[in-house]
Amino acid sequence: MLLLLAACGGGQPRPSRAPVAPYQLSGPVCLRALAAQGITVGPWVGGTTTCPVDTPVLATSGILARFSSPLKTSCAMLLAWSEFEFDIDRAARTIMHSRVVAVRHFGSFACRRMTGNGTRQSLHAQARALDVAGFQLADGRVVSVESGWNGSRDEQRFLRAVAKAACKHFSVTLTPDSDSDHLNHLHVDIGPWRLCGL
């Protein structure tokens, strides 16, 4: 599939307009924007010489839900995520009749090339991507992408509502419908290309 181009995908990307703010915010301006959202971040000496990260942050939670393990990411990625959280919460309350209390993830930063396209650096190498494995609800249920994408009717509706909303917030959203590399997670990123994998 030539359109699968994001940090996890392969193929030849089609450049489009660069994402708008907050995706390009960095440094103190971005950190102040996070603080204004009520998000507290800690220090993380992020990136490497090969894979530098602009304004690296360590977060235990977003605005509404905690991360299953502390998230090492870029400030811009966390800021974009924080705006997306409200759509996740709305979908969970409407479809699952419970709120999301934790986001299960496979991480944001990984200094590597794209899966399926070794000539291009992954957006994970800049911590401008996040792989979401599932969600823990307040009533104790866990909705995982791996089992829920084709699971119960409500799980399917919820995960697809989340993915549809992600397509509005992020440059690229990849799902289990995209390719075999995404059967167990949703990939979202704030890179320079556009693709909605639904």
The rough form would be described as globular
List unreliable stretches of 5+ residues: 1-7, 9-21
Query: Which class do the helix and strand fractions yield?
Result: alpha+beta
Described by its quaternary structure, the protein is: single chain
Question: Mean pLDDT, as a whole number?
Answer: 88
Q: Compute the separation of the termini in Å.
A: 13 Å
Total number of helices:
4
Largest beta sheet, briefly?
A: 9 strands, mixed
- Total beta strands: 11
Cα Rg: 16 Å
Helix content class: 25-40%
Summarize the structure.
The protein is built from four helices and eleven strands, in the order αβββαβββββααβββ. By secondary structure, the protein is an alpha+beta fold. A hairpin with a 2-residue loop joins β5 (113-114) and β6.
Would you give an account of this structure?
The chain has helices at residues 27-36, 75-96, 145-148, 153-169; strands at residues 41-42, 56-61, 66-74, 100-107, 113-114, 117-121, 129-137, 142-144, 172-174, 186-189, 195-196. With 198 residues, it is an alpha+beta fold. It has one domain (27-196). The strands form 2 sheets. Strands 1, 2, 3, 4, 7, 8, 9, 10 and 11 form a 9-stranded mixed beta sheet that branches. Strands 5-6 form a two-stranded antiparallel ribbon. Helix 1 runs parallel beside helix 2 (75-96) and helix 2 packs antiparallel against helix 4. The longest helix is centred in the middle third of the chain and has 22 residues, at 75-96. The protein starts with 26 loop residues before the first helix and ends with a strand.
